[in-house]
Amino acid sequence: MRITGIRTHVLLDPGFDVGATSSAQDTIVVEIDTDEGVTGIGETDLNAWIARACIEAPGTHTMDRGLRSLLVGRDPADVEAIWDELYVGTCMTGRRGALVHAIGALDMALWDLRGKAEGVPCWGLWGEARGDFLTPYASLQPEVSSFEAYLESMVEWAGRARDLGFTAAKLEATFSGPYAHKGLSGPDEWVVRVAREVRAAAGPDMTLMVDAQYAFDSVERALRVAEEIAEYDIFFLETPLWTDDIDGYARLAAASPVPIAAGEWLSSRHEFRELIDRAAVHVVQPDIGRVGGFTEARRVCDMAAEAGLIVVPHAWKTGISVAAAAHLATVTPHMPFFEFLPAELCESRLRKDLTVDEPAFADGRLGIPARPGLGVELNRTALREFEEAAARVA
Question: What predicted TM-score, i.e. pTM, was given to this entire model?
């Protein structure tokens, strides 16, 4: 089998809101075609136009190749070796950031392709299933512009998530810093109030997580919030500090009564190495696309296991990323939950309409993926609509 071409689809939700801090509003989907008619799909969480450039740009010398030129003509079977070649062959542009994120979409598509070619789900290429079902958590971020409306929506959504069968939910509670959603700014007490009121409404049995999204400008401030929300039995506090502040994370992790989680922005296992070696987190959170795809995400999971840490991956995108997280979770015993953006509890049409044949969710559980490859297919009608919407703003 040989790779004959790579198609890139830049997609945009026609109802996107530039004031919303949500990367679920756009995506890039890649399709890798072969001479045997098998096609693999993948995506990554990155500005879709930049991702396309990383893939389609030509290269002029051996250490700065174009990703597409490195892949066309290759046998797609040895995915790990291809990952290493893509990483080295683009190192003068890449090594971190957007280029590695773009490799992530291609790597995901290569594993999907290989699974389809061999007639097994992606996880079946890596090992044995760790159980009979998976446990996703509902990721909740109401898109409103006042705190009272936000709090009301969050409490309602948490209740709906519980009614849908979810046993865990994450509350995106960001009221300061660069991620302040839809310009909603306020005191740190708002974070505490969200945790308190959702816990009261959800009851004692639901696992709750809080995502501060880089809100706090000091360890002391983050620690105060962690101490105040601890009484509400919070499973982890996600990204309380800026992602580059490893010293701060190490200090916070050593003192916080709530486990600290981070890693969604990191690209490659090399960035995770310092986070893990410095004992800067309790929960490791690779985003499968951003970290470099399944190949690199599995390497990060192995590093976390060696350090005795749990993994709860980031997956804020479309049904492709949801399926990817499910495959990784199937063979990762130290992954108690993974992020699940419920189509019923989000605004993004990309999440609602782009894919079909997602793993079935019922009674708080997700079935083990059984179809070959990723097991999801693209809704071609929706794909064309979202491509047209992206073309209008380019």
Answer: 0.94
CA dist list (Å): 221 to 107, 214, 232: 39, 12, 18
Query: 125-377 adopts what CATH topology?
Result: TIM Barrel (3.20.20)
Structure confidence by residue, pLDDT tens digits, 189-217: 999 999 999 999 999 999 999 999 999 99
Encode pLDDT of 33-92 as tens digits.
999 999 999 999 999 999 999 999 998 888 888 999 999 999 999 999 999 999 999 999
In the CATH scheme, what is the code of domain 3-119+379-393? 3.30.390.10
Which contacts of 59-68 are long-range, i.e. CB under 8 A and separated by 24 or more positions? 59/89, 59/90, 62/89, 63/88, 63/89, 63/91, 63/92, 64/89, 64/90, 64/91, 64/92, 64/93, 65/89, 65/90, 66/90, 67/6, 67/99, 67/102, 67/103, 67/106, 68/6
The values of phi and psi at residue 121, to 5°, are -65, 155
Give CA–CA dist 252/369, Å, rounded. Answer: 37
